[in-house]
Amino acid sequence: MSPPVLQVEGLAVRMRTEGGVAEILDDVSLTVPRGGTVGVVGESGCGKSTLLRAILGILPKGGETPRGAILFEGRDILSDRAASARGRIGFVPQDPYLSLNPVFRAGDQILEIMRRHAPGSRADRKRRIVELFRAVQLPDPEAALRKYPHQFSGGQRQRLLIAAALACDPALLVADEPTTALDVTTQREILALLRRLVAERGLSLLFVTHDFGVLASVCAEVTVLYAGRVAERGPTRAVLDAPRHPYTRLLLACHPDRATDLLGIPGTVPAATAQPGGCRFHPRCPIIHSGCPVEPPPLVALPGGRAVACPWHEDAIPEALRA
Amino acid sequence: MARYILRRLLLALPALFGLVILTFVLSRVVPGDPAATLAGDAATPAQLAEIRAQYGLDRPILEQALIHVRQVLTGDFGRSVFSGRPVTEEIAQRLPATLELTFAALLLATLLGVPLGLLAAVNHNGPIDHLVRLLSVGGLAIASFWLAIMLQLVFSMDLDVLPLRGRVDVATGLPPRVTGLVLVDSLVAGRFDIFADACRHLLLPAVTLSLPGLATIARFTRSGVLETLQKDFVLYARAAGYGRVRLAAIYVLRNAVTMVVTQIGLLFGALISGAVAVEAIFDWPGLGTYAVQAILSSDYKALLAVTLVVGVVYAVVNVTVDVAQALIDPRVAEDAR
Hints:
The complex is a heterodimer of chains A (about 325) and B (about 325).
Chain A: E1 6-17, E2 20-32, E3 37-41, H1 48-56, E4 67-72, E5 75-76, E6 89-92, H2 106-117, H3 122-135, H4 141-144, H5 154-166, E7 172-176, H6 184-201, E8 204-209, H7 212-218, E9 221-226, E10 229-235, H8 236-241, H9 246-254, E11 300-302, E12 306-308, H10 319-322
Chain B: H1 2-29, H2 34-39, H3 45-55, H4 61-73, H5 87-122, H6 127-141, H7 144-158, H8 182-188, H9 192-229, H10 232-240, H11 244-282, H12 287-296, H13 300-328, H14 330-335
Subcellular location (chain A): Cell inner membrane
Keywords (chain A): ATP-binding, Cell inner membrane, Cell membrane, Membrane, Nucleotide-binding, Translocase, Transport
GO molecular function, one term (chain A): ATP binding
């Protein structure tokens, strides 16, 4: 078996903010196998974006040196900046409206990405971009090169950004909620396009979202983040059908497609500067025990390739909370 | 784009026409009787009336206005009440000197101000940033007449490396007149010695005049770059693998510069008025000194003409700025539709 494309090991990111030191990620591990599709879900503020920024090598300034390792094709891209995987990791951003520079032509923006990471002459690269535009079904690919971002619709811009992500022939595609800013029909088309491209080109995919419906349609595996730690992970189908961590269970119950009664989770995600001790979910947990560990509970492996960070994962959630 | 430029040009016309009317009205409202000035202290009422008739000052005001408009449109500003020579001729002789000076100052301000602002922004709160901020506050605070004299003292008197005043050495003389711009004419004539000499003469006045502009441009570039650096597309570009230097110097700067270009248009007004003091100190034979002389001698024809010419130059600069902006940011031309 070939080694995984991406391996995040014990990643911890802390930022100094005005409110104190923020623990944004703590001991996060994650593996994207070659050809695998892995989703990362969680509420806003759980550390999804920081995880992506760490992988893409654009963590904000002012942070402490992150601990842990991010191995891309076996090389640590977290500690060794020279081993940077830029170009080999294609990035599809969240907001197609804000992610393109309004004063540069679409073609030139993609050429700029290829400048340092793709072989061939300028003409070769242009040909490649046109091919990619065709692959992402952008209308009139030749003319699109010379158009400015505002001359495209939202869905077209996202196609353009997907083409840009593929420009340097990446091994891994990293997508940050790429459909949130789009309307529902366009969302479907973009997701279908991503699925097709991943399958056709044998790409690996790391997909960040807060939407379980989107997750289920794209990712074979899922990692659930809560307050900067991994709460649960496993094959998407299994986790969605039978969530084990109380957070995942409540989160799924919140999803309008699945909940019989729409529930909320009491309380809010803790501020990154004031993470609770022990299990980070305990202040909001419906099944909190006197026996809960004082240290953050470790991930416990379960059958079927699953893991969960809660010792009481087999307990039922009290009916009182389901009402 | 062609339509956009045409629109901008057409929009400048009413402004210029307004200027023609306004200058005429102002010239009749301000105290000071040009006929009296011209006739001298010992003039008799009969002499005054004769001069009034000669310059058309005795006609009804509306008729005078119409004559004024007609004269402006034909480029005939009449004769100076002071020198008796045609105003158009006098201005044509002096305008190039002022244009040369102001454009040199603008060029200096832009070529130094933009990189300084960019450097400051990418070193946000670092030593370079502090230095540039200090420089830009200083540049706006220092009075140009003081700076001019200091520069003269240091570079002309003490070090004796640059000429004190004038456009060229009297010994060298002016090149044959083609455009009136000495730098251009000397090159046309192939007289590189005159070109070098003219550059040396231009340096101190241009530096003096450019400083406030340089400060403004540096400040606006800095804040524009800082603002652009916060944008999502910059984060995306970094994630996508843009080179650091090209990201700042090309990708970010082009966005930031749209704001700076607007400032350059506005700056031009300040440069022209600043040129009055600078020209006086450096004995620069331009419009500024001419205007001062016209004011002091109530030479209203000359003043009208100077005001109009400056207005036209200002309008041309602003149309150029609009076009430059549309070239930098394609949305500008489309929004204007």
